[in-house]
Write a structure and sequence with these properties.
Elements: H1 3-16, E1 24-30, H2 41-51, E2 55-61, H3 71-79, E3 82-86, H4 88-92, E4 105-107, H5 112-116, H6 118-121, H7 124-140, E5 144-147, E6 153-156, E7 171-173, E8 181-182, E9 187-196, E10 209-220, E11 223-228, H8 231-248, E12 255-260, H9 276-282, E13 289-294, E14 303-308, E15 311-314, E16 317-321, E17 324-325, H10 333-339, H11 341-348
Parallel strand pairs: 1-2, 1-3, 3-4, 4-7
Antiparallel strand pairs: 5-6, 5-15, 6-9, 8-12, 9-10, 10-11, 12-13, 13-14, 15-16, 16-17
Helix pairs in contact: 1-2, 7-10, 10-11
Bound molecules: fe (ii) ion.
Length: 376
């Protein structure tokens, strides 16, 4: 096995999963091999687990549009020392209390390439420490203002994280987003090009709504107050919200929360339009992406809105600047970079590929690559 792949898997099992030799690990995968998760990743995890002295069991669970785990699977999760989800099921249940007691690992490295990259190899403890620093800085700020090149501009006070719950019941691996900031105290405009898509909770049809141009959503607190852009996009988006809200029996125009990527090793080398659902489940951890959870008064809602290259200012300090996270701009951040060399390397040379089309924007369908000019 490629040493980098082994390092990534060990990082997940030992650092994130907290597993020790002699313990049991249950690996839940999707029954449809080689689709959403790359072929061979589950087997590689099992192999590394065995080499670490863990007793590994592989369990295939068919993917369903709404999370519907077999009772047998839940019982097996309860018995294992740790469960690792190489399956969207873990993501669908990430805010569900059914997993709270077992705190399974939800793996967002979707194939061996991602696992072997800096995304899988970046020290998990570094990102755990960074999460604490960022959450503290966000909640300690007097004002947060977010802007982006397409016109996003919203602001409000420091993050008012709920005292209890709301954070996920799984251990995310890699840990690539901070705790969702409740939207209630914010107002302004969110601008996104290309598409609206789901949140990974329910896989309804159509999961993705293509947009012609830039769509702006104006919001005040927890409510979307208007759609702006081309007349066709605005009408289409509003109808989509009403339809999905109706389908789910939820408040369509509810804006629940937002958060941004914090892992510079998270790269997405193909265009989002090649498979928007897979992009939505794998690319969001890059600091070039900030997303909102909307359509539903619960996390993560049913529609995500994705902002590219955000600048997030905490009391005027651009901690994220044009999609690049600067940990040294929050208290404690520089110490983390000094302590964890792999993470520091990633922040020094962040992954820039996040699935944008050649136009530099998100696009619902792949755009043709421009032909390189010939030197002849
Ligand atoms: Fe999210």
């Amino acid at each position: 096995m490629q040493p980098d792949l082994r390092t990534g898997i060990e990082n997940m099992l030992l650092r994130c999963g907290g597993l020790r030799p002699g313990q049991t690990v249950l690996i839940v995968t999707e029954a449809e091999d080689g689709g959403y998760y790359g072929a061979g990743l589950a087997e590689a995890v099992a192999e590394v687990a065995g080499a670490l002295g863990l007793a590994a069991t592989l369990r295939r669970e068919p993917f369903t549009a709404r999370a519907a785990p077999a009772a047998e699977t839940l019982a097996e999760i309860g018995r294992a020392d740790r469960t690792v989800f190489l399956s969207r099921l873990g993501d669908q249940l990430r805010f569900d209390s059914v997993l709270a007691a077992s705190a399974p690992v939800m793996c967002y490295a979707l194939d061996a390439g991602m696992m072997a990259s800096g995304f899988g190899r970046g020290e998990h403890d570094a990102f755990l420490a960074l999460l604490g620093c960022l959450n503290a800085a966000l909640s300690g700020a007097r004002e947060i203002r977010v802007t982006c090149p397409l016109g996003t501009d919203f602001a409000g006070p420091g993050a008012m994280f709920p005292e209890t719950a709301a954070e996920v019941s799984v251990r995310r691996f890699p840990l690539s987003v901070f705790t969702p900031v409740p939207a209630g105290a914010y107002a302004g405009r969110i601008a996104q090009a290309g598409f609206l898509t789901g949140t990974g909770k329910t896989f309804y049809e159509p999961y993705t709504l293509p947009l012609d141009g830039v769509l702006a959503l104006d919001f005040e607190g927890n409510r979307i107050t208007g759609f702006d852009g081309s007349a066709a996009d605005a009408a289409r988006a509003e109808a989509h919200y009403r339809r999905i809200g109706g389908m789910m029996g939820t408040d369509p125009f509810f804006v629940h929360s937002w958060h941004a990527g914090m892992h510079p090793g998270c790269g997405w080398p193909v265009q989002a339009g090649a498979d928007v659902a897979r992009w939505g489940g794998g690319a969001f951890g890059n600091p070039r992406i900030l997303h909102f959870h909307t359509c539903g008064a619960y996390p993560p809602g049913e529609i995500s809105v994705n902002v590219i290259d955000p600048t997030i200012r905490l009391d005027g300090v651009p901690v994220w600047q044009d999609g690049r996270l600067h940990p040294d701009r929050v208290p404690g951040g520089a110490e983390i970079l000094a302590r964890f060399p792999e993470a520091a390397r990633l922040f020094a040379k962040p992954e820039r590929a996040v699935g944008l089309a050649p136009s530099g924007r998100l696009c619902a369908r792949p755009e043709p690559q421009p032909v390189a000019a010939s030197s002849a």
